Amino acid sequence: MVKAAPSSVLDVSALRAGYGRGKTVLHDVDLHVAQGELALLMGHNGAGKSTLLRTIFGELQQTHGDVRFLGEPLRGNSAQRVRRGISYTAGGRAVFAGLTVEENLNVAASVVETDERRIGERRALVLDVFPQLVERLHAIAGGLSGGQQRMVAISMAVMQEPRLLLLDEPSLGLAPVLVERLYRSIGEIRSRLGLAVLVVEQTINPAMLAADHVYVLRMGEVVFRGGEEALHDSERLWSML
Amino acid sequence: MQNYLTQISIFVSIFLLLAISQNLVLGFGGLFSIVQAALYGVGAYTAALLVLRLHAPFPLDLIGAFALSCAVGAVLAGLLSRLKAELVIIATLALQLVFSAVFRNWNAVTGGNYGTYGIPRPSMFGSPLAGLAPFAAYAAVVALIVFAASLLVAHSPFGLAVRGQREDPVLAEALGHNGARERTLIFVLAAGIAGIAGALYAQFVGYVDPSSFDVNQSLSIITIVVVGGLGNLWGTLGAAIILTILPQLLLLIPATSNAAAQLQLLLYGLILVTIVRFWPNGLIPERPSVRAPQHPRAAPTSDAEGEAAAPALERLDTVAVEPLAIPASAVRLEGLSKSFGGLQAVAGVSLTIEPGCVTALIGPNGAGKTTLFNLICGLLRPDEGRVFFGGRETTNAAQYDVARLGVTRTFQDVRIFPQLTALENIVFALSTAAFAPRAFLRDRAFATLVDLGLDGHADRPAGSLSYAQQKMLMIGTVFARHDPIVFLDEIAAGLDHTSVHAFARLIRRLAASGRTVCLVEHNLGFVWEAADTVIVLDAGRIVTSGPPEAIQADPRVVEIYFGQSSTVVRP
Amino acid sequence: MSLLVTLVLLGLTVGSLYALFAVSFGVIYNVTHIFHLAHGAVIGAAGYLIFFLVSRLDWPVWLGIVVAVPVAAAIGAAVELGFYRPLRRRNAPHVAFFLTSVGILIVAEGLFGTIFGPGTVTYTFLPLAAVPLGPTSMPNANLAMLSAWAFVALAVAYVLATRTGRFMRAVADTPVVAASVGVDIERTYLISFLLGSALTVPGVVLYVWAQGLTPLSGLNVLLVASAAVIIGGRTGLLSGAIAAFGLGIVQAVALVFLPSGWQDVVVFTILFFVLVVRPNGVFGRAFRW
Predict the structure, then answer these.
(1) Is the ipTM of this complex over 0.95?
(2) Contact residues on chain A for B460, CB-CB shorter than 8 A
(3) Is the pLDDT assigned to residue B311 strictly greater than 60?
(4) C2-123+139-277 architecture in CATH?
(5) DSSP 8-state secondary structure symbol assigned to residue C53
């Protein structure tokens, strides 16, 4: 049993999960993220990264092991976990394509907050972090570029005032310059709001070196965990994929 | 009373035909078509008109009804073929309503709301079938002939092909079947049978009016099929008997006889709702069209439950790789490009995949690997560029045409036909070998299952097998087909360490036999072990290619996955 | 020319009725993507309930109508909770929803026919009269039509502006994203059924007033309403309503060329060809709501 540290936000212990009928994807995964930390989870496709995030988010049920959030065991479906303070955004299914940017933000916020004034305050914060969205507030989200949609998606998650932010391959399909900008913004959000952030990625961009921890997942097992120094040794990380 | 029962038996024959028609389309073909009552009406009016206006003798009225219903069915099938499944429901509903309205209003031809009267009984051997009993016998004979023919079709390779495309049209095409043509054929056959039912009705009752061919009738027919079980013709027989007799009982009870028509509707509705609510996947599971051969053997080579992963792995090393009769061709791509909306998935890719070695395509997510496979195998058409198999261009060919050139292609994630048995899955993959006798296909398929340790599960629906077993079944498809060219998409996904080694050895044996083997992979460990040539893709273009050792050490490849390792960016 | 104008006006009136039903069907279909044929059962139930309460039990007309609203809503909700939701839980195939819906519709048809008979039932308690409006007067039927529209439009606008309305539009847009964001999808579906079923009542009153009610009325109305929603493009209520008006006009104008019985052919042939040629509807995604 892992004793949760006081500032610990997410504690995953001995987690096993899969898609039923013998398709176990995760084997005995341990992972911890503390408040204000950015943890990076790497691995190739099929290694189980998305499965891990979805299990933490409550879309999949674990078969063994423990997931603790703020020291408490995590139960309930994903809608309930959002209300408890976990927000999730994934590459392919991120925004409401037919609604405006503002409507997207409002919907996300309305799930956890009913006070329109507070929603307005949070919107102002989000626009501060992503000033490019200001002039696009009334544009249809589906018409924005990939990078802008990604910003909207992350903004939607931030609008929910989470304690833990789960990001599934936010850099997918983006040019390196945009990735750099995106991660700068993620860092800013983390600092300003004191969030814990768990990011899943398949490829590394220098901007991600701002992470506090890195985990490498391979065929469902954590084969490596390390601090910032590890991130600079790309040869080593490559060999472990 | 005797007469009453005989009359009911005639209606049982008619509704049996209608239910068979509906089951072929819905249960086997997977097409949610609500237009059977309209086709029933087409048959009835055709028979009526042929006899009354053209004085056609029996059996020309019956044949004419069949033929015209088939023709109408062919036209409708053509129109419906481009529609997605959910829309077929609404489209056929619209068609049913159009036909009903035409029957009610086309006075010149159908007699409008009053209908067409005075249709004489058919004359056989010189005298008309005036009595109830002779007509009942005639109707029963027709119904039984059609029933027997339908059973034959259901158990034929064609029937298996139709069921496969119902489950997974893309997989069916990848295995060489022209799904659209099979759907059309079954729809046309079903239409013809409905037409025969219509002719019988017209011949028996003597008049036809639009109220018998409306949407409520279509819904009643569907109820019979659902009660009997989708895809189950014997169930349809039982259900047709029960559901035809049941409402008749209402007529006998004095209290209910006045509202009999309404009560019948109520009854059918309640039955339908109850069945679908509690058994949404059909009341009786369909029967497989081919079963494992019954010859005695020492003991089943695999256990009946769950795990077969470890023992099965050993089989991968012993399963026989069939030698090639003719050498495999190389696959050549010239300047292939494809974009989706604004996204360029594949840009100007040219490469040659050589026989006798394993070629692996790697690259990060979104690099275009699976899109490339789809372009080569015919699931997608390129915007630019050409594809050649040997000397033969296949650029815009459909999946089934490419498959018939001797290509086996597997998909990401295990893809099998869940409702077909394990044995049927393999037989399906083999059944494009034209005119091979059923027993031959069955034996060959069964031999493959034995080789892979799945023979104990041969008659179980593939969907009930474990993930590992389903994966072996997929491998079985590859082996049973013996194809010279093999494309495997993420075959190593979800495997543990030991399995990965076994699979790598297997792939190498395939290539060693002279086959052209191409992989898309994310599991780099597997790639280094299995491949002779590695091609690296990024953002739709080829970055580099070469033997695994060279690629592993290539800094450009490291960069694709890791960016530049030198600079550090701090917030 | 004046014949054409008369026909167009007739078409608009008929279309207006279709449009009311198209909105009620669209509220459910756009959000849940269930082709809820049982909506016809709700329509029939509302119609027969009002008849029963007012004609047989001598209730005041306004009370009968007011009571019909929550009853209709409850029936719609019952179908969702009792049938669709359990089917979703079991990952039932798409076909199962349709068969269930059809079955409920048939049960309702049979039930109405057994209790009230297969003949036409009318609202004799709603006579046609002229209502004085300042210097002129207007037939009370037209006034009723306008009130019905006002009621429906207000109800829809109110919902769209609220938090629940936001969730309905989100789920209608992309259910997967709505789930990721934590929207309670099941609750949103339930509200759609409640609202859409309740909104049948204004249309039902007008329809039965004009044409009378038979056990088949629910199905007939529903088919045109759903045709309008699909032809309109299934993304917004406005597109369905406009398509409904269009169908009404096309039907009326068709009277010039075709004998009266052929109107159904026109509507459903149009539907069929829209499905084959432009499955996303005539307006596609042009309308946002």
Answers:
(1) no
(2) none
(3) no
(4) Orthogonal Bundle (1.10)
(5) I
